[in-house]
Design a protein that fits this description.
Rossmann fold, 24% strand, alpha/beta
């Protein structure tokens, strides 16, 4: 391509400081270095984590350096590759990944975990392997959120944090597999290993929670109880497979765990927490059955503590966490794309809004007010 080896000037939504709206700016994206790939971002989902890192910075989330470009749930096309890149070529359709898969470390070789730590500390700090970002604006470095920054028309990512996918896949749909849908779906089918005929409760009906509901249905759970304080989400939950929905506020001050234990004659077999609230996490654990109940935590928080009564664990419950749904990122995501292409996995139904990059702050408003499931930002339509 004509831009190979050159900086690309394009548009991005820049966060200059915490708790301030994003600013649409012209930025420069440098060429990829060794083991890096520059991609043209076609579409990006707007995840609750993006909003939290901007508006809840330092309040349950570790403070990232600013300025930065948010966005981590995306799909695009390879524009150019840096030295020593062998698995990607210009024109490849790809999904960038905040969780790497180097194939070489002990974690990658172990089937019990997906937590590859290649470049982990750097990408968590918003930089790539050499300690710098590839994005700059007004003459200063702009950090890359989780090493991705998909609210930018072009970005550069490590070649271990990228999945090559079916060239026929619609990027404006499969971008959702970069975070939310994979996380919730995997929490049910991979980490939780929900069983046929079981009883499940899903806490929180955002994109992650709805994906968990979908996972429970795919696993053939007999009963799927969807829990949320926003009843407007119940119809969509039923469409994804919930057998019933509960609004805790309909029961006054009675704890939701007590309600679920009563309704299920002892507790659910699987509780999937998709909110990121320590209070909800404790409630989810306590809603499970003595002896064999499993609680999977997929809601995200970094600095808060969960309160667990020891007897709840001693009585045989299992408490598990999941990161990215347990999937080995670059290895497993292409298969999830194939599952979508073969209509085994829903994605279209998660998309409630489509907006251009210029309306990114409107997308955050929709998310904050509970009016969207997933807004997909088109990076081609400015």
């Amino acid at each position: 391509m004509a831009t190979t080896g050159q900086a690309i000037r394009c548009m991005a939504a820049v966060a200059w400081e915490p708790r301030k709206p994003l600013s649409i700016e012209e930025v420069d994206v440098a060429p990829p270095k060794a083991h890096e790939v520059r991609i043209k971002v076609v579409a990006s989902g707007v995840c609750h984590t993006d909003w939290e890192y901007l508006y809840e910075a330092g309040r349950g989330m570790n403070l990232r350096p600013f300025p930065l470009v948010l966005g981590h749930e995306a799909a695009g096309v390879v524009e150019s590759v840096g030295p020593d890149v062998t698995k990607f070529a210009p024109g490849d359709k790809v999904i960038p990944l905040f969780l790497p898969f180097c194939e070489e470390c002990d974690q990658c070789k172990c089937e019990k975990t997906n937590l590859c730590k290649k470049n982990w500390e750097n990408t968590q700090a918003g930089v790539l392997a050499d300690g710098t970002s590839r994005i700059s604006c007004r003459g200063q470095q702009v950090y890359q959120f989780l090493g991705i920054s998909s609210f930018c028309q072009y970005t550069v990512v490590p070649d271990t944090s990228l999945a090559k996918i079916n060239p026929k896949a619609p990027l404006e749909k499969v971008c959702l597999l970069g975070c939310g849908v994979s996380t919730g779906y995997g929490a049910a089918v991979k980490t939780g290993k929900v069983e046929n005929g079981s009883c499940c409760a899903v806490f929180g009906l955002g994109a992650v929670g709805l994906a968990a509901v979908m996972g429970c249905q795919v696993a053939k759970a007999r009963r799927i109880i969807a829990v949320d304080i926003n009843p407007d989400k119940f119809q969509k939950a039923m469409e994804f497979g919930a057998t019933e929905c509960i609004n805790p506020r309909d029961y006054g001050n009675k704890p939701i765990q007590e309600i679920l234990v009563e309704k299920t004659n002892g507790g659910v077999d699987y509780a999937l927490e998709c909110v990121g609230s320590p209070v909800t996490m404790s409630a989810a654990l306590e809603s499970t059955r003595d002896g064999c109940g499993t609680c999977v935590i997929s809601g995200w928080t970094e600095t808060e503590w969960m309160n667990v009564q020891v007897i709840k664990i001693l009585m045989g419950r299992t408490l598990k966490g999941t990161y990215f749904g347990g999937w080995k990122s670059a290895r497993d995501i292409p298969q999830l794309v194939e599952d979508y292409m073969q209509k085994k996995l829903k994605l279209d139904e998660f998309i409630s809004h489509n907006l251009p990059l210029a309306q990114i702050n409107d997308a955050f408003d929709l998310l904050r007010n509970g009016q969207s499931i997933r807004t997909v930002i088109s990076l081609e339509d400015f």
